[in-house]
Automatic annotation (TrEMBL):
MF annotations from Gene Ontology: 3',5'-cyclic-nucleotide phosphodiesterase activity; metal ion binding
Annotated protein name in UniProt: PDEase domain-containing protein
Pfam families associated with the record: Lactamase_B_2 (PF12706), PDEase_I (PF00233)
Species this protein is from: Adineta steineri
Annotated PDEase domain residues: 109-446
Length: 462
């Protein structure tokens, strides 16, 4: 009464459940609206929500409860607002939305080749899965077709009481959120998802029976989300490096404090899509279950940041060494730390699995990757920056840096995974070695050709 009315008020709206514990410290959205009215605020902004899981309510619930409280008190919806974290940097694309009345395609997508797609999806457990053919016969919706099939095969739809129309609405929106770039696109996301699905079948990993349904299926669901989150578009356009050197990525770098910038952004967008009721595939989970699931998802997605590779691999190698010392044929994942460590490395393997696929498949992936890298190098040059080594347009760039990448990162990771699930990964390691030899032979031929041309040029000058 002494200082009001106020032009603008920042009023807390989060961390309010359970009321018997929190009412003395934090206000609920209903109480926040009463404060807004009591101080005669012309405009209020909801704060203290959506950053940390401090209470029992789902961390994204406060804005929904606030909206309802504003409506119940017959206030203008614009008089009390919240700043939606991701809405300012990303707009959900216009995409197909399914409803309860919408017929659900048997395979998740409409295609003029349903029988051919069904036959290919029946090979979903095959490491040499023909992902490029799936893209061609799924109406260019490989991510939706593959993920929908995996959710069915692993019985995740029933386990999480997921409504099929919400699952497809979410998958369509997520797939349409990917950038149309040569490599880090929806097909790569689909490939990581399918690869993760196969790795989860490894015989060298066991989970205690009593936690299998409750806990392990959570991890399965998280892995699917990770596969689907990969490389969602950012406001910076086509520059794909996780580096924050390029100006288009600076807004994201500032937003995420230079920490796992793209990984954090992908998580934010994926969970933003869940905010719409028609896409909220986890609407039947309790607040506690949702909080648990989100923690697993965040832990696993952030583990794919290559900046964390060495630490993650070192911890993984120690875990595998302990397994060998115990002489067990398989690893009992009894603690959360062990489970999340194995799953982080599992998704890391899936993310770096292209080099372990047959050469005809791998060569397609590496050609796409180089086109994307070269475009980034062109962008760096145009901005007056030093061109990243792998982005230099040179005949030897592809082979030279892929050999180095395999030797320094991919092979040590897969070798450790192979030790964990022996002998499941033997064929995978053999294929990786063959693809490295292919690069070595190609580099030798290019180097020899360059040397011969140089010698011929010198002879002519003499």
């Amino acid at each position: 009464k002494q200082y009001g009315p106020f032009d603008l008020s920042a009023i807390p709206i989060g961390a309010y459940e359970p009321r018997w514990m929190m009412e003395a410290q934090h206000v609920s959205p209903d109480e926040a609206v009463r404060i807004h009215m009591d101080v005669q605020s012309k405009q209020s902004i909801g704060v203290h929500w959506g950053t940390f899981a401090l209470a029992n309510e789902y961390f994204m619930e406060p804005p929904f409860k606030l909206s309802q409280a504003v409506k119940n008190n017959l206030l203008n919806s614009s008089s009390f607002i919240v700043l939606k974290h991701v809405a300012q940097i990303y707009n959900v694309p216009t995409t197909t939305t399914f409803s309860e009345e919408t017929p659900i395609p048997e395979l998740g997508v409409e295609t003029p080749q349903p029988e051919e797609l069904r036959v290919e999806l029946n090979r979903i457990n095959d490491w040499n899965f023909n992902i490029f053919h799936i893209e061609a016969i799924s109406g260019e919706r490989p991510l939706t077709a593959i993920t929908y099939r995996i959710f069915q095969e692993r019985d995740l739809i029933r386990t999480f009481s997921i409504e099929s129309h919400k699952l497809l609405s979410y998958l369509f929106a997520l797939e349409d959120s990917y950038q149309q770039v040569p490599y880090h696109n929806k097909l790569h996301g689909a490939d990581v998802c399918q690869s993760m699905h196969v790795l989860l079948n490894s015989s060298g990993i066991k989970v205690r029976e009593k936690t299998k349904t409750f806990c392990f299926y959570y991890f399965l669901s998280n892995n699917k989300i990770k596969g689907r989150v990969q490389r969602i578009r950012d406001p910076g356009g086509d520059i794909r490096s996780s580096s924050t050197r390029c100006p288009p990525s600076r807004d994201l770098a500032i937003l995420y404090n230079d920490e796992s910038v793209l990984e954090n952004h992908h998580l934010a967008v994926a969970f933003k899509l869940l905010q719409a009721d028609e896409r909220n595939i986890f609407s039947n989970l309790s607040a506690e279950q949702m909080e648990t699931l989100r923690k697993r998802v965040v832990d696993m997605v952030l583990a794919t940041d290559m900046a964390k590779h060495k630490t993650l691999l070192a911890d993984f190698q120690n875990l595998v060494a302990a397994k060998k010392m115990l002489g067990n044929d398989y690893l009992m994942l009894e603690s959360y730390d062990d489970r999340i460590l194995v799953l982080k490395n599992m998704i890391h393997c899936a993310d770096l699995s292209n080099m372990t696929k047959p050469l005809d498949t791998y060569s397609k992936w590496i050609d796409r990757l180089m086109v994307e890298f070269w475009k980034q190098g062109d962008a760096e040059r145009d901005l007056g920056l030093d061109i990243s080594p792998m982005c230099v347009r040179s005949p030897t760039t592809k082979d030279k840096y892929q050999i180095g990448f395999i030797n320094s990162f991919v092979h040590p990771l897969w070798e450790t995974w192979g030790s964990l699930v022996y002998p499941d990964a033997n064929t995978i390691l053999e294929t990786l070695a063959q693809n490295r030899e292919w690069h070595e032979a190609s580099l030798a031929a290019l180097t020899s050709s360059t040397t011969d041309n140089s010698s011929s040029h010198d002879d002519k000058q003499n």
